[in-house]
Design a protein that fits this description.
The structure is a homodimer.
Chain A lengths: L4 E8 L2 E8 L2 E5 L1 E3 L12 H6 L5 E4 H6 L3 H6 L2 H6 L5 E4 L2 H7 L3 E3 L4 E4 L6 E4 L1 H11 L3 E3 L11 H28 L21 H5 L5 E3 L1 E2 L5 H14 L5 E3 L8 H14 L6 E3 L5 H9 L4 E3 L2 H7 L2 E4 L2 E4 L19 H5 L2 H9 L4 H26 L3 H17 L1
Parallel strand pairs in A: 4-15, 5-6, 6-10, 10-11, 12-13, 13-14, 14-15
Antiparallel strand pairs in A: 1-2, 2-3, 7-8, 8-9, 16-17
Helix pairs in contact in A: 6-7, 7-9, 9-10, 11-15, 11-16, 12-15, 14-15, 15-16
Chain lengths: ~400, ~400
Amino acid sequence: MSGFSFRTSHDQGLARLGWFGTPHGVVETPAFMPVGTHASVRGLAMHEIADAGAQMVLANAYHLYLRPGDVMVRALGGIHAFSRWAGPMLTDSGGYQVFSLARYRTVREQGVEFKSKIDGSLHQYTPERVMQIERNIGADVIMQLDELIAGGSEQSASRAAMERSLRWLERCRSEFDRLSREGRADAPVLSVPDGAPALQTHDIDRDRAAPAQALFPIVQGGVYPALRRASMDGILQSGDWVGIAVGGLSVGEAKSAMYDTVDECAVMLPRDRPRYLMGVGFPDDLVEAVARGMDLFDCVAPTRMGRHGTAFTPDGKVQVLKSSYRTDRRALVAECACPACSHYDRAYLRHLFAVEEPLGPRLLALHNLTFLMDVMRQTRAALRDGVFARWSEGWLARYRAADRR
Amino acid sequence: MSGFSFRTSHDQGLARLGWFGTPHGVVETPAFMPVGTHASVRGLAMHEIADAGAQMVLANAYHLYLRPGDVMVRALGGIHAFSRWAGPMLTDSGGYQVFSLARYRTVREQGVEFKSKIDGSLHQYTPERVMQIERNIGADVIMQLDELIAGGSEQSASRAAMERSLRWLERCRSEFDRLSREGRADAPVLSVPDGAPALQTHDIDRDRAAPAQALFPIVQGGVYPALRRASMDGILQSGDWVGIAVGGLSVGEAKSAMYDTVDECAVMLPRDRPRYLMGVGFPDDLVEAVARGMDLFDCVAPTRMGRHGTAFTPDGKVQVLKSSYRTDRRALVAECACPACSHYDRAYLRHLFAVEEPLGPRLLALHNLTFLMDVMRQTRAALRDGVFARWSEGWLARYRAADRR
């Protein structure tokens, strides 16, 4: 666990202010992590993500394994050098993508076999293989391979997937540890096309050594409290984890079921480790989850919704194409410092979407990210000031008032 | 012509260094103007255009007339306030768009009738109407309505279009002058949708007064020297123009025919007025046209080609998807200061295009614009230093060397 640390202060109920130290810097928690699936947050430059207040960025091992290839990312200096994000990074294993995107897939105890949606080629995704891939890519935090099932699955299916995920966690950890001890496989010699310079000569010993990384297990078990407890039991008995993720939520279950499950997990998870709630990224869900003791979050919703014309505001979500914006020269959100709000007005933003100019999706995606970063900054300030309960009540009431009207 | 000025210095052959003063600032010429069709340079923010070195930006009267409407742009404070480009701007009349994009069009002496490609609605585009539209939009320089015909047209068709364009120029000028004297029509009361604030109250007298603008005539006549001379004769006899444009080139004719036509025009056009060569924007064409006495340029090519993965470099055009870039960690163009070249490497740029991340088109469009701005800066420096002929010979030889290999 060298290079990693976590300390908290200012607990209020289950919520807490934290500092998650990684080999590439410290993340002040609660924190939202923008998703850079292909080592790029869709349409946005890394300096814009940084200006928006991002501290840690996600990438996806499945997508990078397919293109440009994990070995290529390693040869190009690792994910930080490749993407030019110098701060902390995390790769999801890509399990979700294997289960949802691959054209054909066969799940066995050994792992998942799937055909690439790009060229139909056949791939084996085993816990061991995923560790090799994620250690080649080189993010600070890497996620285990878990078995994903559809939201709303029966308890028996949820149990089977949860139990398999625990077995796969064991195999992930063994391979992760083996790679730490023995180093990574020698990088295969990459063919360099005509006219290209040779890749810079790596220090072979240094290149073999696996980078300092932390493996996070993922709590599964659907919306069934007993299964969630069993999942956590298994995880906690099997190792001393740097941090622990809660997965399988925000997949169509009722909000109350999601909050209840988070409650269930928060009580049982060790308080001295960061908790990462996967795939949750609506503003009000973040505030609710912080109140329930979660520290890290990611979701494509803010950028995806922005690209499709929905903006987050302190008064709830807004469609930027709404007719009242046609003549509205005010900033989208007066108190927001993002480029959309500081340089342009609602009439112009609406116009960009009306004529399908790509600056519109870009500006609104960055606005939504900035908005989430601001919400996280406000949660941290409220925790520091000891007013989180009061602050979150007021914030949620205002955010949700429009929905109730 | 209040608010406009032009002076030149450092003539070398037909090439010259110039300063074109407009109500919104001075443009150092030779200069390339990025095209912001819908008051947005596709995918790029105005501050990026400014950082790239742009001095003057184009918008398109046809597109803005359809959406959001010229009256709406005026009500929102005019094109500068609307687009947040504080510097000089120019609107093309949209004649090209009417002739090439409209679903149905009927050309008569009175003007053009066309159906909108957006909703099928019927529109009249007469010289008078176009002047009213461009004066509502409020760019510094506005273009006459001219009749466009297909590149490679017969001499008789070219003559007829050229002569009609001269008659339309007369009507444009009359209406332009009338609007200067009498002011613009009272802005119709715009319906303000429910929940929208009223538009800010304008000073009605000030709003009626037409902004300080210059109307540019357009030399037509295809690739026929006699027609070009007749067009220029007509233009020069009909008024004392702030600047003059050369149109109808770069529409499929041979490069040599284009250069010959520019030569023909440059000799005859008054030396003390800026010359705007419309629609020309490949790097080598710009250098050739500067040598032939042209001062202002516009073209969608740099941004469009960038979006489609073609980058301008000092050694010619490059496809960013080329296989040798797969492992190439060098900057796209070492001496370029654009974000693509200063933050990222070729391997990452190639990856962005390979996985169709929208950051790729955005970065490459900005790179190509920056590249053209740099070429223009180099032409100005070479003129100032009295070495333009030698500089352009060397620059063109290097740029074209790859094509000859």
